[in-house]
Design brief:
CATH class of the largest domain: Alpha Beta
CATH architecture of the largest domain: 3-Layer(aba) Sandwich
Oligomer: single chain
CATH superfamily of the largest domain: Type I PLP-dependent aspartate aminotransferase-like (Major domain)
Number of domains: 2
Strand content: 5-15%
Bound molecules: pyridoxal-5'-phosphate
Largest sheet: 7 strands, mixed
Length: 394
């Protein structure tokens, strides 16, 4: 006998993966250049030169046993200090190295944080559209999941709906801004209102409600837009950060958790993070990557390509008659499906070799996600297909 839940999780491929696999088959049949695969969020621009240069220098200069050896379970002290300093340089969150925990990317950050926070009977709120793995991580941590939809007009929070589902059992709400899949950035006004609502509800229920700020896209914003730093607005915050997208390093698995010093019981919460990391086997994030990150903090890949893709795709699709909110960040465009069933629309798109993902798994039916972390050339080649596709609905 095995865990039924895990067997089913392991067997059920995500819709995104299904489409990606279909794309690979099609590419082998008709040639990679003729398939327009917008399904994955895999960065398409290289990591900054400094990353490879730093790695080479570390390999050349740092004693091998040290470079490839274990660091502390929570990460190298010097690396955590550099990250705390970097946070404090940009924000007023008062980060301290002893509240930072190095992880294998945002996925591990989230799984650890949820396991640290959740006790029996707790609920976690997700704002739809949301990264589908949240449900997997939250349920595995023992939480019941409640979801609430963001406003269709701008993908900011619908406070009336949110206020209606917060209850005495609410332990945490996961915020992801810039958002996958909508590309929305929650404004300072929204975060201020959210902080006020959570403070009021905590008082009403005599409980502590935590924000888990999932921030792998923090640096991927366009047009000079600011991404409010949640710990500067709300005390009970845990930041789950990752370098996967900002440095185009998703396969290297490196990120961190930062527990706000203002969070209620922050010392014990950090201890619980260390405990959850230990219990889940997420100790000592990859040493080479930790040492590399320390030297390149503040750098990002050249995101101007994503900005160009965003403008090209948004302008063309809206001109053809598609409806979408212009994304301010991340590398996704969330488009309203011209038919009610987004799955049927995605199937129809395959006729033009266009691979896009239905919003259903993101908790938002009737929409599709188009990842524009692809080559600008591919977008240009796909546009006539997008045009013909919407014309089928006239
Ligand atoms: N959170 C969101 C919103 C994501 O889009 C992703 C990956 O696409 C993750 C978390 C996981 O990131 P990582 O690769 O750092 O584990």
């Amino acid at each position: 006998m095995f865990s039924e839940k895990m067997v089913s999780l392991g067997k059920k491929r995500s819709v995104i993966r299904e489409i990606f696999e279909y794309g690979n088959v099609r590419k082998s049949q008709i040639g990679a250049d003729n398939v327009f695969d917008f399904s994955l969020g895999n960065p398409s621009i290289p990591a900054p030169d400094e990353v490879n240069r730093t790695m080479s220098e570390l390999i050349k200069n740092k004693p091998s046993v040290e470079l490839h050896g274990y660091t502390s379970a929570q990460g190298d002290a010097g690396v955590r200090k550099a990250i705390a300093d970097d946070i404090n340089k940009r924000f007023s969150a008062g980060a301290r190295p002893e509240l930072i925990y190095m992880t294998c990317g945002a996925a591990a950050s989230l799984a650890i944080t949820l396991n640290a926070l959740i006790v029996e009977g707790d609920e976690v709120i997700l704002l739809a559209p949301f990264f589908p793995e949240y449900t997997v991580f939250a349920e595995k941590a023992g939480a019941a999941v409640k979801t609430v939809k963001c406003r269709e007009a701008d993908f900011q929070i619908d406070f009336e709906a949110l206020g209606g589902i917060i209850c005495a059992k609410t332990k945490a709400i996961i915020i992801n801004s810039p958002n996958n899949p909508s590309g929305a950035v929650l404004s300072a006004e929204t975060i201020t209102k959210l902080s006020e609502l959570l403070t009021e509800k905590s008082r009403e229920f005599g409980s502590e409600i935590y924000i888990i700020a999932d921030e792998p896209y923090r640096e991927l914003v366009y047009g000079g837009i600011e991404v409010p730093y949640i710990p500067d607005f709300y005390k009970n915050t845990v930041v789950c950060y990752s370098f996967s997208k900002s440095l185009s390093l998703p396969g290297e698995r490196i990120g961190y958790i930062f527990v706000s010093p203002d969070a209620s019981g922050c010392e014990d919460l950090y201890a619980a993070v260390c405990g959850a990391g230990r219990a889940l086997g997420y100790v000592c994030a990859p040493s080479l990557l930790q040492y590399t990150i320390k030297e390149v903090l503040g750098k990002t890949s050249d995101i101007s390509v994503y900005d160009k893709n965003r403008n090209l795709l948004y302008s063309a699709l809206t001109e053809y008659g598609y409806t979408a909110v212009r994304p301010d960040g991340a590398f996704y465009l969330f488009v309203k499906s011209p038919e009610k069933d987004a799955n049927a629309f995605c199937e129809r798109a395959k006729k033009y070799e266009i691979l896009i993902v239905p919003g259903d798994d993101f908790g938002y039916e009737g929409y599709v996600r188009i990842s524009y972390c692809v080559s600008t050339e591919m977008i240009k080649k796909a546009l006539p297909g997008f045009k013909k596709l919407i014309e089928e609905y006239r």
